[in-house]
Batch of 4 targets.
Target 1
Amino acid sequence: MTPHLIAPMAMIPLMAYVIWRRMRSHFGPQPIRRKRMMTRIVILSVLGGMSALAGLQDIHLLEALLGGVAGGSVLGLIGVRLTRFERDANGADAYIPNPWIGGALTVLLVSRLIWRFLVMMPSMQDSAAAQSAPAFGNSPLTLLVFGLTIGYYVVYYIGLMIHHRRFERAQALPLPPSAA
């Protein structure tokens, strides 16, 4: 194995672990962790902004990214509408996400990244060609899928925090006296 392939191959187990954790978070009750959600919103927004700046070199890349963010935002709103809130046995707030939207986006992103990696692999085999190979994110379709993911999770986490506040207020209100 050539030295320039060691780093990408070493990342495969880490990426598998991250994907497994992401998929696991789409099923069953999930605890509300406001600080983590805010951190994710910031990180995803920064990544999206950096991708948009890189996309200024080619307008097609920027269009794909912004189109993906718009589509992901709509999916995020739908995802929030399909999410249920509850209190677990300990009294802690939790949400139950719709597994289909987040799971489908994760599969779509992972599939696209694997495809892009396989397409670029032959040029990475040759060290001379690796120097002149196109960058990993220089594909409008890749940036579209990346934008879908960013738009979905940013809007979804913002929506979760807003709806969680409403859920907390509704749980704190006293029950009206029964008309007996």
Note: The first helix runs from residue 6 to 24.
Target 2
Amino acid sequence: MNKNEKTTPQFAICINNSGYPASLELHKIYRVLPDDEAAEDGDLRVIDESGEDYLYPADYFIVMKVPQNVERALLQTL
């Protein structure tokens, strides 16, 4: 993905934090960053509890669409 392209923010809820209890909280919504190469490997690039983006197994999350007002609220807290 071209870094200059504007994308709709994506969010995912954590459904498994095995091996990452300090980095991921169960049932918390996380911001997902586009990363086509990671997706090909079955991973998601997520902004975790450290505030940095890291790769995690995609099956640890459910990617979800959120209403625009929820998206605005989530982006304000990030």
Note: The chain has one domain: 10-77.
Target 3
Amino acid sequence: MSDPSAKLRIDKWLWYARFFKTRSLAARQVSDGHVRVNSERVQKPAQTITAGDVLTFPQARAVRVVQVVALGTRRGPAEEARTLYEDLAPPEPHAPVERVGPRPTKKDRREYDKLSDPG
């Protein structure tokens, strides 16, 4: 197992764990104040983290909440990156939308367009 007192820069870890495509993007997110470590906002990319820290940050249209499991030594493949953290955010429900009636035909679509066309 790794040294429990080991530390790593937060921008490097976010890049190692493949949350951001480049290290500079990760550093920008931290500098802009969008990342929290154990519920405390950090603004320095050189902020160090250790195993057990909880990170909260926006990614795409979702807010990620992850716990650091390991620090890592390189930016490896995705399978290796997934071993660096545990995702704490609840999974979002993706219920399929059920169709109400039969699928509309081209004729139905043209009639609908005629009704909604103001001119």
Note: The helical segments are 10-16, 23-31, 78-81, 106-116.
Target 4
Amino acid sequence: MSDLPENLKYAETHEWAQLEDDNVVRVGITDFAQEQLGDLVYIEMPELGSKVKAGEQCAVVESVKTASDLFSPVAGEIVAVNVALADEPEEVNNSPYQAWFFCIKADDLSDLDQLMDAYAYRVHIEQ
């Protein structure tokens, strides 16, 4: 397992979240998640402009092994999706902390307080 970036927040469901400017939160999946899934072959992104709640299922990843839901770490509006991943889902396997899935304009940044820091996430996945 690679080192966990300290500047990210982590959900129990293995998404990472990075706060950008203007209350925008960039979202991807962790190295642990991509290792568990195996080679990704398809990603279904959320629709631009859709509203999501914290913890709500909003995207799907499919691998050679299984399909898995992705959950929004914060409530807000989807303001960007990484369309490049549709053609190259394997980029998530190659660099999970650079290959983001979508960005959410957060309604309330306190949702990020419910997520784990790198240390707590490491403990979570080692259990």
Note: The chain has a mean pLDDT of 95.
